[in-house]
């Protein structure tokens, strides 16, 4: 079951009035996290590659009475992190919560068949961009004595041999987790925390992509597992996963790997 904070919210800080930057906010987990944060009273800076999807997320956030800023960006592009951080800080002054959710599962295929440039590109989006965003925003967080960095990973890191054909994705998520835990140690005592979030098996476009186009690109057992999980109703909603993440943000835990299935 997702984390239930009902027994320990008395000693944690409210997110009301905080500013959060959520990447990959155009759909799926990113959109759901943005909406959950809006429900907690946070203002939102939102990034995504799709202008149309991003606009819809902004509309939904504003319907909840929260302020929202849209910054369309491909975070794999060299200047994107600078654009996002400069526009966000110009409007809000400081970011209190950073949720790095944007990621790609591509390229899929056997490692020997993958273009090395495509493999490296996945690292730019899945690892370098989250780290760069954190590095840009952390000085203001540490000066304020409060901040939260959460990097969305995947349970596949615990079983990296289970996704043959997804070498780049598995490697990037493992690297992201190592970066996060090392960063948490660096931030010890500052009031700023850094944690990993494994969102569970969520009904997202990434899941659909592997089901619909993964045959022949990932190994047969991997493809069958994705199809079977969907057919048997084992996927959770983005909203369920997002609630589990957001419920933990106001606590002081740092250097942890949170999983949606953990009791907290």
From TrEMBL:
Q: Which family does it belong to?
A: Belongs to the short-chain dehydrogenases/reductases (SDR) family.
Query: Which EC numbers does the record give?
Result: 1.-.-.-
Q: Could you tell me which Gene3D superfamilies the record lists for this protein?
A: NAD(P)-binding Rossmann-like Domain (3.40.50.720)
Its source organism is: Streptomyces dubilierae
Extract the InterPro entries matched here.
NAD(P)-bd_dom_sf, SDR, SDR_fam
Protein name, per record: SDR family oxidoreductase
Residues folding into a coiled coil are none
User: GO molecular function, one example?
Assistant: oxidoreductase activity
What UniProt keywords are attached to this protein's entry? Answer: Oxidoreductase
Which EC main class describes this enzyme? oxidoreductase
* Name of one Pfam family that matches: adh_short
The organism's taxonomy opens as: Bacteria, Bacillati, Actinomycetota, Actinomycetes, Kitasatosporales
The transmembrane residues are none
